[in-house]
Amino acid sequence: MDKAETWLDRFGRFLAHRLQEESSGYKPYTPSDPLTLLASLKPGDVLLIEGNQHISAVIKYLTQSTWSHAALYVGDVLPWTGPADERPRLIEVNLGEGCVAVPLKKYRTYNTRICRAEGLSEEDRRAVAAFMTGKLGLQYDMKNIFDMLRYFLPAPPVPVRWRR
Asked: Would you call 127 helix, strand, or coil by DSSP?
């Protein structure tokens, strides 16, 4: 590993940490109830989340959406022996963490919505859950951090006609 790669990796992790800091003043309109979500979700559903991190504000601005994060509901396919409310039922990809499994209660203080694809068979739903389960442990591509950095920096002091 060369020094440039090490420096870039460290800088990317630093930026990821800064972007994941929580914004002040976030108040959910209707926080999610994990038990209600559990009764409503089916494997293969996508849980949309209105995040409260700095990166969330950028994502919401760029996508012109209320939602800044998404997690896939996989149900009870992951082995678990702990308390039921701690059981990981969602798979998500987080900046700095990569692909991880988390419990529903993680999003109890956020606005959430369920996005369900129409026409999926139970076999299709199991296939989607199995695909994402197989991706657990993969790392987030830190190159995306540098691409997002340009949205945090002011416009360069050059005429608009010279910019791309």
From this structure: helix
Residue with tokens 């919401």: 60
Q: Would you report the helix, strand and coil content of the chain in percent, each value rounded to 5?
A: 40, 15, 45
Judged against a pLDDT cut of 60, whether residue 42 lies above it is answered with yes
Domains of the chain listed by start with CATH number? 26-152 (3.90.1720.10)
Instruction: Show the 3-state SS of 56-109.
Output: HHHHHHHHCCCCCEEEEECCCCCCCCCCHHHCEEEEEEECCCEEEEEEHHHHCC
Number of helices and strands in the chain (H, E): 5, 5
Query: How would residue 70 be classed by pLDDT, with cut points 50, 70 and 90?
Result: very high
Query: Is residue 25 pLDDT above 70, yes or no?
Result: no
Residues 131, 135: Cα–Cα separation, whole Å = 7
Mean per-residue pLDDT over the chain, rounded: 81
Instruction: Count other C-beta atoms under 10 Å from residue 35's C-beta.
Output: 12
Cβ-contact 12, 45 below 8 angstroms? no
